[in-house]
Fold each of these.
Amino acid sequence: MTVLACRVAMWDWRIDDAYAPAILILLFPLLEWLIHVFVLHWRPRKVAGVVLDTLLARKHREHHVDPRQVPLVFIPWKALVWVIVGYNAAALIAFPRLGQALTFMVTVAVAGLVYEWTHYLIHSDYRPRSRAYKAVWRNHRLHHYKNEHYWFTVTTTASADRLLGTYPDPATVQTSPTAKNLHGVA
């Protein structure tokens, strides 16, 4: 909220403040898919005798084991701190005006809150009422309970999944024995 308060207090609004947020909103399904596939579903790797296994990947594997455990639904706070510091620093460096950077920061924060809230609702007892939310709910549930190799988007109705070939007809997909135990790794 501090970033939002700073942005509002600064006032200096220009049309180019809308470019980065508009691009982020358009790319968000793809970014969400990429993060889910390459960061959250990261397989532990041994390099020079050292096992590389990120906190986010470990927590995501735990989330697949027990998708209804509320603390595992949310981004781990230790990682979230680094994400917030990183994207804020990147925004301050990348944008020529402070107003643009602050607008981008607010947009990322709102997108993050929408993601977290949607993900929480999907894993709660709340049942979808709208057609759009039913599609989001169904796709993410398929990812957890049918096959972890498909249906990676969380907040959209499979837009990036359709684009990147991870949105098959569920009737054609076998139930995966590792949906609850990603990569067979404990």
Amino acid sequence: MKKVAVILSGCGFLDGAEITEAISTLIAIGQNGADYEVFAPNKDVEETNHLTQKPTGQKRNVLQEAARIARGEIQSLEQLKAENFDALAFPGGFGAALHLCDFGKKGSGGQIDPQVARIVKEFSDSRKPIAAICIAPAIMALALGKKGINVTIGDDAGTASELEKTGAKHQNCAVEKYVVDHGNKVITTPAYMYGSAKPHQIFAGVSGAIAELIKMA
């Protein structure tokens, strides 16, 4: 049975992993006959009130927050080694652009979390496929932009042009669809980059991307 490593960035669309995308990813992995393990960075970050969309002044731990989605079955990023897996998946949510890299604040000038950078390099170097959802393709652009990687974040021109400053190429894509870069073994789908998308549309795009990921693995 193929195994997929899933990296979450917390829990909650403004300051963590987008729950609908994360659950869609886990369900799709199982539907495609594969298994998964969940990982997250062990770091404290600013909490956002999702009703007001303002900071609360409180801190939350990303690993503990992501454990809510993973039902406690989760490990820190340090435990993740590409040799133990066939593929890698990054659900989005703004946490991916805040806690896994800082694209959310610095755009194309951003840096990737050192553990995330190590993990992406391990999977890329060993020719194992990676799926990135929503804003998470920014991680792929920061890591692999110099290779001219082909990604999508939907049709947001501002974000797309920022991605392309890394050397990545952007392809517009509908929410139910996904983009495959066969050469670099990277699959991306826009999900909640379309803010008005419905959960069933998110699931269509994510499950298509994950099916392609498992096939490519």
